[in-house]
Amino acid sequence: MNSASYHHxxxxxxLLDAALLLIRQRGxxxxxxxxxxxEVGVSQTAPYRHFxxxxxxxxxxxxxxxxELAQHCQAALQADASTPENIRLCGLAYLHFAIANxxxxxxxxxxxxxxxxxxxxxxxAGMDSFAVLLDLVEQGIQxxxxxxxxxxxxxxxxxxxxxxxxxxxxxxxxQRQCLTLSNDQLINNMIDLATRxxxxxxxxxxxxxxx
Amino acid sequence: MNSASYHHxxxxxxLLDAALLLIRQRGxxxxxxxxxxxEVGVSQTAPYRHFxxxxxxxxxxxxxxxxELAQHCQAALQADASTPENIRLCGLAYLHFAIANxxxxxxxxxxxxxxxxxxxxxxxAGMDSFAVLLDLVEQGIQxxxxxxxxxxxxxxxxxxxxxxxxxxxxxxxxQRQCLTLSNDQLINNMIDLATRxxxxxxxxxxxxxxx
DNA sequence: CAAGGATGTGTGCGCTGTCAACTTAAGGCC
DNA sequence: GGCCTTAAGTTGACAGCGCACACATCCTTG
Lengths: 211, 211
Fold this sequence. Notes:
By secondary structure, chain A is mainly alpha-helical. In chain A, 61% of the residues lie in helices and 0% in strands. The first copy, chain A, binds a DNA duplex through helix 2.
């Protein structure tokens, strides 16, 4: 492979990598297709050989992010832990990932991607990562640790809480506090509350729960 | 006032109104300052007499939206209802507003506004609308209907759940279902679960809660 | 070794946010 | 009433953007 070849060799992945780099550096809002091409060192229209349009490139990154997120959450589970405890671990891992990769998280869940419904692979990747939580909830229903309600309902509630917190934190609604994971205590407490919503026998929370 | 006057008279508000109209019609992503000016019938730079830049105009809309949202939630409360019931009503009103005004909600909470931390009035408006919920939670702690935990923690948890659900629903993660309020039942159940997280004596949920 | 598809380039269009310089209208002061 | 400051709106321009089109170059396969 001659280094200054006309053909790049692996432009598709190089573009994705460059996009991730620029997103991390300057945020999604500032991301332009031309800047990505510039970063890689190709002409501004070269990306169109590999992605139908800018949106399609973002979709690709979102899919990868969904997969990584699911993997990250799955890896946090422990075989010998109770189901509620595993739900807690899953939520914690989710928040860690979101806060460690705020720009990617915003890209994946935010408005940067247009007409996300039109991309079945993207929706499927989202469902797949949601399935990690859904499986846990179904397991909890069966082993009796969770309420005997609709699994989708309970999983969605948990997901909403975690996603809502991640979004609010990332978008700066909690200013400085919470965004650093040094403040793990608050995140832990919130996740405890979230799981309390669906547990059959809610755990004692802190000292004064009195129930 | 001659009708075809050089000076508009109330251009500032006219621009805000036009912006809301265009947002409702074509979404935030498509909103351009020039289109707003075109809609009002002034030159493309006229808005700069009233707003420092596009971002500042969006901030203004977000502030108004925060205020309306808070007002909407406040109006849903009932003097003779229990605190948990009022929290439920508040969350319900919040979701109604969000789903009825998806584009404005996205604008207010999403990434369209850059550097929101740099606008103290915006942050204050956000805090003010959050205060509606926070007050309820503090009241619930005092009257003993809620857990004796940190009020900020519990209010944040509730807010995260509701905001998370609104975001996911608006961004299409639940596809058709849920987005129509004809499906009130699901929203109601979710809010019940969310309040269960912080209630001292969680209410019976549906038939099979068995506790 | 020729052909042809895949991959990358160059140029250009219409759109955007924003700026500087200009024009117009309105209101206060003598 | 005439003048002058100032707020409000206009004109024209610039750089950057996504994208479409025609063209150049290379690799592969027969």
